[in-house]
C-alpha cells in the first residue's frame, strides 16, 4: 500500500530555516513534533505557568491535527517534556482535560532546558485517523 505524504505548517519561520514541519501526515498516520507554548505573536504564552503553557501546546497540536484532517480524538500517543519533573501534575491535569476519554498512551520526561528558557513544557503527539480508506 502506498501512502501520500503531507507536510503541515503553522507558519513558524523556523520551519524553513531548520528544515522541520509542525506535523507530517503519511496516509492515516500523523506525527506532531515538539510543540512549544508560543502564541501567534511569536511570544511565549503563560510565562512561569506550566498549566497555561501545556494548554497552549495542546491547542497548537489540535490545530495541526485539524489541518491534517484529524483531531485530538485520533491521538494515540502523547509525550510531555518538562524542564522540571516536579511540574508533572500541573501539566497532566491540563492534558487530562483534553484526553480523559481518548486515553492515549503517554510518556512524561524531563530535560535540562529548551531553546527558549521561558518554555517549561513541550508536547508531542501521534495520531491515526480513524476510518481511513474512504472516510479519509
From TrEMBL:
InterPro entries: RutC-like_sf, YjgF/YER057c/UK114
SUPFAM superfamilies membership: YjgF-like (SSF55298)
Signal peptide: none
Domain of life where this protein originates: Bacteria
Name this protein carries in UniProt: Enamine deaminase RidA (YjgF/YER057c/UK114 family)
Amino acid at each position: 500500500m502506498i501512502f501520500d505524504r503531507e507536510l503541515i505548517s503553522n507558519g513558524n519561520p523556523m520551519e524553513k530555516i531548520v528544515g522541520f514541519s509542525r506535523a507530517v501526515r503519511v496516509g492515516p498516520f500523523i506525527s506532531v513534533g515538539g510543540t512549544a507554548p508560543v502564541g501567534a505573536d511569536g511570544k511565549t504564552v503563560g510565562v512561569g505557568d506550566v498549566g497555561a503553557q501545556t494548554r497552549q501546546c495542546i491547542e497548537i497540536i489540535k490545530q495541526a491535527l485539524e489541518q491534517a484532517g484529524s483531531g485530538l480524538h485520533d491521538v494515540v500517543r502523547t509525550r510531555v517534556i518538562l524542564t522540571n519533573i516536579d511540574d508533572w501534575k500541573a501539566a497532566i491535569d491540563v492534558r487530562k482535560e483534553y484526553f480523559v476519554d481518548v486515553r492515549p498512551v503517554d510518556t512524561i520526561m524531563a530535560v535540562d532546558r529548551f531553546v527558549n528558557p521561558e518554555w517549561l513544557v513541550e508536547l508531542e503527539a501521534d495520531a491515526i485517523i480513524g476510518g481511513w480508506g474512504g472516510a479519509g
